[in-house]
């Protein structure tokens, strides 16, 4: 099918040169086949012509941080749950919200697993579930001995995930971090790191009497100390770093200090939708406290406003979801659904994570649009920066030859988020009732119009045999 999107106001590339203008975009065989100036006469040979006058057009969103069909993380014991969204339901939610490419995490299943085995385990799950967006993985290193997986994994993927928290998978000893990050740097890859201090949390859980005490259990310096330590090690040994789900403006400031002194290595960071819109007041007032078990925690109103400003000021590279959803029944266990009259210590026995894959694009777009930032910046923070950073070939740009992953946004109306539009396999949303600037009017995944055409199965974006 040959499709024309006409009157598209977009940031795009013409002969590798960045341009923001109104153009006509030609789509054929799943690719952007041509970008035409408005003055060029439109052919009648198109199977479909869609007028995007008044709309803003962006490359399909890229969410480089999701957990689909994933085992649960807890602080004190394994909950044995699998995240509520499969690759099928999660990808359908993603694509409904303008995200057409995701990056998930590949964990070892057995002690004898090679890096190739780890990837194959995930590919088997994707095949069983079905997935409607393209995807790649970060290889998770969860034991000091996994340093041996780095060289193997570097022939397949671009990044390795390290957790400094969660019993059973954390690597928080500085000597172990040094060894693993040195190997990642030597292979020219990226260490993606969850920065919190496990010792702080473990000590402070003992005094937790109410969820309203969350700021005491996990104070801000918990994240700041870990971020500083990780970046210091990275600077010493020469390792590219991507700091996951930054939740505090001061953490961004620390990252910026290291960026200025990093001597040719690269540091990037990301922020979730909930850390842009939801405050720690929820710990006091929410009727469903189990929905708030996540890491890092929700932060103060001042921190949320500060993170919005950091995104607007282009101090944060990517907007992500960290979509790791668990229903309330999963949180409590099937025998105790929807109960909240337990000691709050039990919240730390629940699987940690929250949902947001569907709202990610419009939640970040709303913050940026309210500040009247350029389409170029929006396109980069919601798509291109992730594609460039993690080498997602054919993704993240409106450019001839790239995949025809396209999002059409009406900037003049608002989206009121509600449960009845949720495609995620969830019974709640932290964003329920929120108003966002803009509305996603159309999504195309490799040229196929979501809600109109039959969608293709997504593909793994790496060479893997």
From TrEMBL:
Required cofactor(s): Zn(2+)
Catalysed reactions, semicolon-separated: 5,6-dihydrouracil + H2O = 3-(carbamoylamino)propanoate + H(+)
Domain Amidohydrolase-related: 57-450
One MF annotation (Gene Ontology) recorded for this entry: dihydropyrimidinase activity
Enzyme class, spelled out: hydrolase
GO CC list: cytosol
EC number(s) given by UniProt: 3.5.2.2
Pfam family name, one: Amidohydro_1
Family: Belongs to the metallo-dependent hydrolases superfamily. Hydantoinase/dihydropyrimidinase family.
Protein name (record): dihydropyrimidinase
The species this protein was found in: Hexamita inflata
């Amino acid at each position: 099918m040959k499709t024309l999107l006409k009157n598209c106001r977009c940031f795009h590339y013409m002969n590798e040169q960045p341009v923001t203008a109104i153009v006509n975009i030609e789509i054929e065989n799943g690719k952007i086949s041509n970008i035409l100036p408005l003055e060029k006469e439109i052919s009648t040979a198109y199977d479909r012509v869609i007028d995007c006058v008044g709309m803003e057009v962006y490359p399909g969103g890229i969410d480089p941080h999701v957990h689909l069909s994933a085992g649960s993380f807890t602080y004190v014991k394994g909950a044995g749950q699998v995240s509520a969204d499969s690759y099928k339901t999660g990808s359908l939610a993603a694509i409904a919200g303008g995200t057409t490419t995701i990056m998930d995490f590949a964990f070892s299943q057995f002690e004898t697993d090679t890096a190739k085995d780890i990837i194959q385990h995930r590919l088997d799950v994707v095949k069983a579930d079905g997935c409607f967006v393209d995807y790649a993985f970060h290889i998770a290193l969860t034991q000091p001995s996994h340093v041996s997986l780095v060289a193997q994994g570097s022939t397949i993927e671009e990044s390795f995930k390290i957790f400094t928290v969660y019993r059973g998978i954390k690597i928080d000893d500085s000597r172990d971090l040094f060894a693993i990050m040195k190997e990642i740097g030597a292979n020219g890859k990226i260490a993606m790191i969850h920065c919190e201090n496990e010792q702080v949390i473990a000590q402070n859980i003992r005094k937790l009497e109410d969820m309203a005490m969350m700021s005491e259990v996990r104070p801000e310096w918990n994240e700041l100390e870990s971020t500083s330590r990780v970046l210091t090690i990275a600077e010493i040994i020469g390792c590219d770093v991507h700091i996951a789900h930054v939740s505090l403006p001061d953490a961004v400031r620390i990252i910026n200090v290291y960026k200025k002194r990093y001597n040719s290595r690269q540091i990037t960071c990301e922020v979730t939708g909930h850390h842009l819109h939801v405050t720690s007041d929820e710990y006091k007032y929410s009727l469903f406290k189990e929905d708030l078990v996540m890491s890092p925690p929700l932060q103060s109103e001042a921190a949320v406003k500060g993170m919005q400003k950091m995104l607007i000021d282009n101090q944060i590279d990517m907007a992500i979801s960290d979509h790791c959803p668990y229903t309330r029944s999963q949180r409590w266990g099937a025998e105790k659904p929807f109960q909240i009259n337990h000691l709050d210590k039990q919240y730390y026995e629940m699987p940690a994570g929250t949902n947001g894959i569907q709202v990610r694009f419009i939640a970040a777009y709303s913050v940026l649009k309210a500040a009247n930032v350029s389409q170029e910046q929006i396109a980069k923070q919601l798509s291109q920066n992730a594609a460039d950073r993690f080498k997602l070939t054919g993704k993240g740009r409106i450019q001839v030859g790239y995949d025809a992953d396209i999002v059409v946004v009406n900037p003049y109306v608002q989206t009121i988020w509600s449960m009845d539009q949720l495609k995620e396999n969830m019974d709640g949303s932290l964003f329920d009732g929120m108003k966002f600037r803009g509305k996603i009017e159309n999504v195309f995944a490799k040229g196929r119009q979501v809600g109109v055409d039959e969608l293709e199965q997504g593909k793994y974006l790496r060479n893997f045999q």
